[in-house]
Amino acid sequence: MASAQCFRLASPTLKNEERMPRHHTDEGQGAKKNISPPLEWYNVPEGTKSLALVVEDIDAPDPEGPIVPWTHWVVVNIPPSVNRLPEGFSGKEEEMGGEYAGIKEGNNDWKIPGWRGPRLPNHGHRIEFRLYALDEDLHLGNKVTKEKVLEAIQGHVLAQATLTVKF
After folding, report:
1. Which domain of life does this protein belong to (predicted)?
2. What's the confidence (pLDDT) of residue 96?
3. At residue 123, what are phi and psi to the nearest 5 degrees?
């Protein structure tokens, strides 16, 4: 395994700083709507016990005040031997079985587990995918949230990889 500096997150359908394809958003149509994007990562740091993913709209305005990131997807306990989440993975971890079966999806800011793509009153927002390589598994109970994940990973992040797309 390579050093933490080379840890990288990529996607065959998402290009860094480019527009997110419509079928990954809540503005797609029918079966081509809210499909979780495929993600792949490279050079997981030595000593990684699990990976965690947090996806947020980092430009979401709060009607009451400042910009507060809006959570679209939380995924935890990804084994370090897994190097990708296929397109449409959300909600299918048990169905896929094998190493994927232990992966847990947390609640997004719509208060439901799994991926939910952006649907905004206006476009131009940045959606940030952050993958954390951790030196331990997370034990967060039945209801996993971004807040619980970010608190639990403090002091356990070996490396972080980021991919940012536009909506």
Report:
1. Eukaryota
2. 92
3. -95, 180
Domain count of the fold of the chain = 1
Judge whether 59 and 125 are in contact, CB under 8 Å: yes
User: How many helical (H) and strand (E) elements, i.e. helices and strands, does the chain have?
Assistant: 2, 8
At residue 59, what are phi and psi to the nearest 5 degrees? -115, 15
Cα distance between residue 163 and residue 15, in whole Å: 8
Exposure on the CB side of residue 28, measured as CA atoms within 13 A: 17
pLDDT number for residue 3: 46
Range of the domain at 125: 4-166
Q: Which residues contact 63 (CB under 8 A, 6 or more apart)?
A: none
The domain that holds 134 is classified in CATH as 3.90.280.10
C-alpha pair distances (Å), 9 with each of 5, 128, 129: 12, 11, 8
151 class by beta-carbon count within 10 Å (0-12 exposed, 13-18 middle, 19+ buried) = exposed
Give mean pLDDT in consecutive 10-residue pieces for the chain, a chain of 167 residues: 72 95 91 95 97 95 78 98 97 92 95 92 88 97 95 98 96
